[in-house]
Amino acid sequence: MITQSASLLKSLRREAVALFLEGVAAANPEQAVAAALAERSATLEQASRIILVAFGKAACPMARAALPFVGERLVTAIALTNHENLESIDGVEVIAGGHPIPDEGSIAGAAAIEEAVLCAQEGDLVLVLVSGGGSALLCAPSPGVELTDKIALNDALIRSGADISEINAVRPIFSRLKGGQMARLAGKAKVLSLILSDVPGDDIATIASGPTARPRSSACRALEVLDKYGLWQNLPAALKCRLEQMNAMTDATATDFDNVENIVIGSNAISLRTVVRKAETEFGSVVHASDWLEGDVLDAAAELHRIARAAAESNGPVAVVCGGETTVKVRGNGKGGRNQELALYFALLNELQPIDRQWVFLSGGTDGLDGPTDAAGGIVDQGSPDWIRQQGHDPVSSLETNDSYHALACSGDLLITGATGTNVADIQIVLMS
What we know:
alpha/beta; Rossmann fold; 17 helices
């Protein structure tokens, strides 16, 4: 017999997942691209030829949405995406690459995009479709830098706990396309870049390391990040040589980017507004905890738990909503991701300082993939740590070894959505009865 308490928790879980999916739907890449291109019909019609390049986790749906707008002017169409989101599209060369660690597919896809953009002429339009994951996928190492060097650098940055802005301050130094270099390859052709943002403040120089943005990174800034996280000492020799050869990247002049238009068409902020509006109709009282949740995952969990405990003192049902992208310091060899760690630690914190009512907490990546796992994140309640222990796992030890996936799997607390075809960072939702 299901108790009233268990029935309430199941209901809260269903509602949390439904709200999360509302946020994912708000970042629908096809709808966003179609709306943006419908407003720019004149730009499309003025182009002698159109070269379409798309890269990121949403490259396929974004490219598919653009096809009806480009018509017979289209001369080349390339989409570079991760293996999980690979699909066939008539009229588009689709290439799969590795994410979060680049592979040979990433190299091949970046080379194909580079060649296509280089063919642009005055009067042409280069239509660039950018989405989350684009930086790792668009792997075009600088001369003298090998794929193994890029992989080592990328892996070290991810494991170090560096945030996305810091990571993307380093990547352009070792790339032929990042940091505005793709836009420069287009020469006198017009560049229209439609962007799904997965970074704080929707900074176009940070999203996918800013291939069509005015560059701001420098060797000096990259070195600061590498020193901060103790990565310089073990940097591959080719990367050290590259940094030592560059005092700073040349700043772009204003005329360099007169032909470039960058437009953010979807973002975490847009998705959060959708979640908040929906939660208000269901729960009435909603706390928008943060415009961008960032920093170490353990600190973020503690802050969210503090906010939830304070919100629980109000009357009636309440929701706490936020979004962003936290970082994980990898200490062990377990399996998991930042959202799974956030959910597990939130549940453990609640054992020390309980929230005084029934609650569920969901933390999920809008791309449906949290770290190198098949889960989008986790969804926990006050009973989750005990369920984990009853199944023979120690939740504290699991957290210490970065093995949140197996801990949440045994308690049935993994959030599984499958690849969503979009990526606007993460969404966190606390629902309280």
